[in-house]
Amino acid sequence: MTFWLVLTANSITFGGLLFLLSAGFSLIFGLMRIPNLTHGSLFMLGAYIGATFVIGMLGVKMNFWLAAVLATLTVAFLGALAERMLLRRLPGDQLAQVLVTLGLSFMAADFCLLVWGGDPLSVATPPELAGFARLGVLVFPNYRLAIIVIAVIVAIGLWLLLDRTRLGAMIRAGVDDPDMARVVGVRVSQLFTIVFALGAGLAAFAGIIGGPILSVYPGLDQDMLPLALVVVILGGSGSLLGSFVGSIIVGFIYNFGQALLPELAYFVLFFPMLLVLLLRPQGLFGRHVP
Amino acid sequence: MSRKITRRKFIVGTAAGTAAATFNFPAPAIAQAAPFKLGLLTVKTGPLAQGGIQMEQGIVTFLKEKNYTFAGRKVEFISADTGGSPAGTKTKAQELIERDKVDTIVGPLAAFELLAITDYIAQQKTPCLSLAAAEDLTQRRPNPYFLRASATSSQAMHPMADFAAKELKLKRMITISEDFAFGYEQMGGFQQTFEDNGGRIVNKLWPPIVTPDYTPYLAQIEGVDGVCQGFAGSNPLRFMKQYAAAGLKYPVVTGETGGDDALLRSFGDEALGMYSCCPYTLDLNTDTNKRFVAAMNKDYGVDPGFYCAGLYVNGMVVEAGLQKTSGKSDDKTEFMKAMKSVSLTDTPRGPIKFDNFGNVIGDFYVRHLEKANGKFINKTVKVYHNVSQFWTYDEKKFLEQPVYSRNYPPLKS
Amino acid sequence: MSGRVFALGVAFVALVTLPYWMTGVYYINVASQILFYAIFALALNVLVGYAGLVSLGHAGLFGVTAYATGYMLQLGFGHPMAILVALVISLISVAIYAVLSLRSTGIGFIMITLALGEILWGLAYRWISLTGGDNGLSLKTRPEPFGYSLSDATAFYYATLVIFLLSLAAVTVFVRSPLGAALMGTRDQARRMSALGYHVWAIRFYACLFSGLLTAVSAILFVYYTQFISPQTLGLTSSAEVLLMVISGGAGTLLGPIFGAGLVVIVKTVVSGFIERWNFLLGAIFVAIVILMPEGLAPGTARLWRLARRKRARSSKAIPGSAEAKP
């Protein structure tokens, strides 16, 4: 009985982490139509930078949440830089976007290896969230429960931003019809920089939030990127609801699939992804067929 | 540090190699003055870089200690990054053998890398000393030019199982390890010896190598009194964290990669109490080990683990081999024979010698992970002497059974 | 135009005489690698450059051929039989791959091919009885066509060169043919092509088959070169690598993929011997290409060459004493 409860609880919480990971990707892809293959590297960079301050490697030891904010802002800034200097020159040129984002991810991965070496870094769970919660017969770590709460907060925040603010309206306008939006006085290029920075920052935030569970190690970027792709495909790109629901669904597939079908562990995520692509290419909640 | 040497030495090496190829010097006397070329195949980029970087640190530490001189001959060291792929390994092996004309190769790191070049090495008659644990290379498909001074995948697990059954008195265990050959061979060895000693493996779990979250597997661990894990690379860190986070408290036993001393600097409190069996242990009290650890602390600021020590010992074996042939390495077969007959008593891992397959017979240490003075240490609690790759089993019978795999030994239902 | 023909002529002569001026068996081997990776890149370019379909699972197809060859050899068949069966299996695989992937275009195609590639990779890992799992399959010998042994590096190089030139010719013929033109039409204006009566799906399907056949050829050369195949070769990283060869060299051009293959192979094998952070360098080169020559190395170099020639021509034609005649 506990087996099923643990799996269910973990499906939801792992889904929360997946949402934080893929929200940025979905945002950039859905709104800017750029397949940001650097996304895994941004996740890893955020994790490394955050870990540096949590462990106190530069002599400065910080509170976990402060370190997370610092990591997020740093990587968001780097993302904005990349957008302004590189991606801006390639509107609509998907092949060049693939080349530049993959090139950046090679550079980022090797840079992390150079700076932090090959050893994995352990990120301590923030002390206020250590320990277990008892929900009836289920005993579950507090930190993982906190992740789903964080994910929900971020989801609501993003939705409010896009749906209820002027900035959000401008973003949506810039995406639907960039030329028209410019005519009306919307600074589309500036908006794209903001959106890319936001997406990059979200990836980094996910990286450090995932730190206490996943640890930080070389190769983290390549391990996490396919998961983001699966979520975005299943849930549909450009849709916040799609990302959220998609993440939870992938969380369930991951947990129950690996536990119940160990022989198919390698395929347990890609088969459903393939099915969705063949039967309903826009995903569950996607607005347009890719 | 090693990079400077690599570049400079590479240019000199190529020139010397080209010269040697153009002007055939058959007379051994003249060739003796030529430097002994040692090539390293390692991984310095990508996810396997952790072990790869440590391998280079280990061999360079030994070379520095010997002032780059073995048996009176100058040693030229060339390091090659295989990128962690079999095709890359083959290319770099060719570079070392055909372009740089190395006399001996140390490395590569991973079993699949070694398997990609084993035929090539044998064909080129280049002696190779590797940490790669693929069992059959010294069992059912032996390579006469291959020497392994570390351990086969199961060599450390047989004594671990013996310890688990006899000292820890465990009766029912679950094994969990990555879904690839190194995992199968480790857990197979553990299972065989554990069950021979009255224990029972209740279930075998195989998460894929890339598994960010082990919870679906951890949720299946119950009804046992111990867990055996065989994770490698940076996975042991994540596994132990998630194991503790899942509230599991059963004693954990593991092998050389799961309890690697190099991970001590990354582990947290969740790893306390873990038992590991390893061919190398940081707290071994031999002169060489004390020198080795001091040199590693000085040059790299870290404590060595199994990868560093493995390459240091490989260096020792090469040097000892050269001592035996009085510095001659032209006759590769003779040189190989000399290295195979090497028997050392004072190494960072204790006494070693080789069996007729080229695999080491040596001491294996069971350690307990504890905290001392705020630092994590692996405290040696038992030493198994003269452990061969066949444990206490009859060699012929052992070779007749299939190689340890996902389904061998089978689960007793 | 004659300048271009001259350059091609020089390149051809250089390639044919390579073993004589390239010192060292090792470098001849590197040349062989560049050539068969170039075939792989040319194959992918048929889809990426000429059909506008980006496949991120091509390494999976590559692996299928390599495994088929290795497995047939393990079963005891001779080289000709193994190669033939491998080619047939590859064609069947690519047909299935195409039928599934062509249900979508654009990002959908990319994602389906990615999923298929990952599934093939997973199969290579788990179907241990067939593939040996992560231990891989070894090939003990190389073929001996017409009695010439290919175990020697120079012999293997020439065999690869011949097959490379044939493949390049095949791609050129394909691209210049009506089918090729129709393919480029479907890339640029699929709806119009359909309205004009072209069967867009069929055209793309044939392009996939052609691409798959060439991929199989390069895979056979690869597996005989390394004499080993393991699941690593089918992973997403490998698919991304060949895609990068195509894009960096110049997608949609005939010679672009060859440049791209050369770039990646040289940095990975030769430059990595000098520079420890070669991965970073490779990424930086890709970014530099996007900034300086976004159309790719081959067209970019041609463009810069023409610019340089025009500048020289202008300055030499300048009237003496005028502002333009700057020394």
Strand-pairing-aware structural class of chain C: mainly alpha
What's the alpha carbon Rg of chain A, rounded to whole Å?
Answer: 19 Å
Helix content of chain C: over 70%
Which stretches of chain A are low in confidence, meaning pLDDT under 50 for 5 or more residues running? Answer: none
* Low-pLDDT sequence parts of chain C: none
Largest protein interface, residues of each chain: A-C, 40 and 42 residues
Rg calc of chain C:
21 Å
Give the averaged pLDDT of chain C, no decimals.
89
Helix content of chain A: over 70%
Principal-axis shape of chain A: globular
Task: Please summarize the sheet with the most strands of chain C.
Answer: 2 strands, antiparallel
In terms of DSSP E residues, the strand content of chain A is under 5%
The CATH topology of the largest domain in chain C is what?
ABC transporter involved in vitamin B12 uptake, BtuC
Extended strand count of chain C: 2
What are the salient characteristics of this protein?
heterotrimer; A: 290 residues; mainly alpha; 71% helix; 3% strand; B: 413 residues; alpha/beta; 9-stranded mixed β-sheet; 13 helices; disordered N terminus
Report what the structure shows.
The complex is a heterotrimer of chains A (290), B (413) and C (327). Chain A is mostly helical. In chain A, 71% of the residues lie in helices and 3% in strands. Chain A has a two-stranded antiparallel ribbon. The mean pLDDT of chain A is 88. Chain B is globular. By secondary structure, chain B is α/β, with parallel strands linked by helices. In chain B, strand 4 (104-106), helix 5 (111-124) and strand 5 (128-129) form a beta-alpha-beta unit. Chain C is globular. Chain C has two domains: 24-292, ABC transporter involved in vitamin B12 uptake, BtuC (Orthogonal Bundle), CATH 1.10.3470; 294-327.
Give the helix/strand layout.
The complex is a heterotrimer of chains A (290), B (413) and C (327).
Chain A: H1 2-32, H2 39-55, H3 64-85, H4 94-116, E1 132-135, E2 138-141, H5 142-164, H6 166-176, H7 178-183, H8 188-214, H9 220-235, H10 240-260, H11 270-279
Antiparallel strand pairs in A: 1-2
Helix pairs in contact in A: 1-5, 1-8, 1-9, 1-10, 2-3, 2-4, 2-8, 2-9, 3-8, 5-6, 6-8, 9-10, 9-11
Chain B: H1 2-22, H2 28-33, E1 36-42, H3 49-65, E2 69-70, E3 73-81, H4 86-99, E4 104-106, H5 111-124, E5 128-129, E6 146-147, H6 157-166, E7 172-176, H7 181-196, E8 200-205, H8 215-218, E9 226-229, H9 235-245, E10 252-254, E11 275-278, H10 287-300, H11 306-324, H12 332-340, E12 343-344, E13 352-354, E14 360-372, E15 375-387, H13 395-400
Parallel strand pairs in B: 1-3, 1-4, 4-5, 5-6, 7-8, 7-9, 9-10, 10-11
Antiparallel strand pairs in B: 2-3, 11-14, 12-13, 13-14, 14-15
Chain C: H1 2-16, H2 18-21, H3 25-50, H4 58-74, H5 79-101, H6 107-126, H7 128-131, E1 137-138, H8 153-176, H9 178-188, H10 190-195, H11 200-226, E2 228-229, H12 236-249, H13 256-270, H14 278-292, H15 297-317
Antiparallel strand pairs in C: 1-2
Helix pairs in contact in C: 3-8, 3-11, 3-12, 3-13, 4-5, 4-6, 4-11, 5-11, 8-9, 8-11, 9-11, 12-13
